[in-house]
Write a structure and sequence with these properties.
The complex is a heterodimer of chains A (341) and B (239). With 341 residues, chain A is mainly alpha-helical. Among the domains of chain A are: 68 residues, no CATH class; 30 residues, no CATH class. Chain A has nine helices and six strands. In chain A, the strands form three sheets. Chain A has a two-stranded antiparallel sheet. In chain A, strands 3-4 form a two-stranded antiparallel sheet. Chain A has a two-stranded antiparallel ribbon with strand order 5-6. Chain A is flat, with a radius of gyration of 42 Å. With 239 residues, chain B is α+β, with helices and mostly antiparallel strands. In chain B, 16% of the residues lie in helices and 36% in strands. Chain B is built from four helices and twelve strands; from the N terminus they run βαββββααβββββαββ. In chain B, strands 1, 2, 3, 4, 5, 7, 8, 9 and 10 form a nine-stranded mixed beta sheet that branches. Chain B has a two-stranded antiparallel sheet with strand order 11-12. Classes of the chains: A mainly alpha (341), B alpha+beta (239). Chains A and B meet through helix 1, strand 2, helix 3, strand 3 and strand 4 of A and strand 3, strand 5, helix 3, strand 6 and strand 7 of B. Chain B: This is Ribosome production factor 2 homolog. Chain B: It comes from Artemia franciscana (Brine shrimp). Chain B: Keywords: Membrane, Nucleus, Transmembrane, Transmembrane helix.
Amino acid sequence: MTDVIVSEVLQKLSEKEELLQSIHVSKHLQPEVDLGNLLLNDLDEIDLGNIKTNKEEYLLSLSRDNLQYLVNKLYELPTERVDEVIVAKIPEPILRIPREKRVPKDKPLTKWEQYAKDKGIKKQKKSKLIWDEELNRWVPRFGFKKALAEKEKNWVMPVAKNVNPNEDQFAKANRIKEEKVAKNELKRLQNIARNTKKAKKPVLEPAAKYNTDQLNRMVHVAHTATASMGKFQKKLKDEKTIPKTGKRSHFQPLISDSAAEKSHNLEILDRVQSKKPKLDIEKAVNRMTRAEEEERHEHNKGGKKKKSKGGKKGKGKFRGGTGKKGKGKGAPVKKAGKGKR
Amino acid sequence: MQLFSSGILSLAGCIMYLILTGNVALCILNYHTHNNEAQIIGRLYDYHLLDMVELGIDDCQLIETFKNQKIAAGIKPCLLFAGEPFNSSSEYQRLKNLLVDFFRGEEITGLRLAGLEHVISFTAAEGKIFMRSYRILTKKSGAKTPRVDLEEIGPRMDFSLRRTKLASDDLFKTSCKKPRQIKPKTVKNIKKDALGTTTGRIHLGKQDLSKLQVKRMKGLRKVKSGKKTSKGPKNPASI
């Protein structure tokens, strides 16, 4: 009797083992699994002999093994029940796929949001309904139902002693409400205006009186503001020719006086090899002081209308001795003996 | 998101059309000439071309040649990649990224385990890439996990990797960037040790040494509980 039971138990165990074997997958190297993408990377080498002889069966068995491994991993995930269906919680994908479009820019904070952030004020969750004592029921905090409830409560409005008795209190209350709404709208628009980029100041500002520089500039702009940059623009009677503005590169001819070319090249070599600093401190300081004086003069002339910003970014003004592009006002402060960098 | 176009269109013109009209990010162009058939898979980032890969089709068997039951459209497939090139060669790795991008479907947080139906496997061997598409059949096994069997359904294609035009590494990096809101917030200064106790560090900042009380004053002396402060003559030794 016991023999039969034992043999039955052993048989069941062996069957179970067989079934367990059926989901067991043996791999030389553990495959990399990315459950977020349902992706599996097999790291084992492929049997090329098998590919040549029986390709399709080999690919099928390989895929089956890999999929079994993946499914085993999927069934290890924590599950939850959603609408009578068992659902596994899938983790974040590991393989990073590129986005379709750029990351959107952060919205700029409004004035209140900035203040709340600085003070550490956090939003408090508010309930949708409020208990109203007078009406003895739950009333929404906002919306048309709230407005109706307010109307119910304020079917009559008391008139204060110091107020004109002929004044319409209901109209007054409505007006106050409208003003509040308008004020809110104004603040909202101000927030938007503050956060959007403002248009740059035009090069030619409208003014009552223009000086010669401005007038010349206006003439030049009017002349060149065509599709061909003013090339085919006819002149008016008695109008002076509009000079070309802007920097033009001047190149030496290919074949020129060889002595001049030789001396020029030797000069360059001397400058490169010299130990002298490339920045002429005195020259730079003189230029800077002159620029400051000019600025002060203009500032005084303008009658303190415009606030001068901390130094103009003169394009050509702070070049060093070699004529390389300068980086602005920082240069003259450096000590003599250090090269310009 | 995907647009198929056949015929001998130039890919650049095709992409411009997609950008202007379809608002599309992934595209395949099939072209075939006498003796030569190929596919170009391309993807866009920020309205510009990101990656473009030409795969020559060496052998192709369409879905119709496999006479069996198919699966519904739109099911998220499992993706399997095998073969050494997919782990070592940078070109193949980018191709893997492109294929995953193409075939993976939506991003999900939960998966109905009984609903796994589709598998696509890519195997790289002998300089070719074998794409096979299978249907999943599940059988009971002794354990909770079912035994899985495959049946080939979908198109069977043998590709060979031809020309590629891949994005530079830094462009690829910027395109993979996640917005700041999605990044997981790292909690600083709090640790859990092996025993499970949570410890935190508090940084007090630098102590202002000029405000240290160094002078001994009677009022600051600690008074032992129960003992009255003596008002008698001070012991000169105690000062």
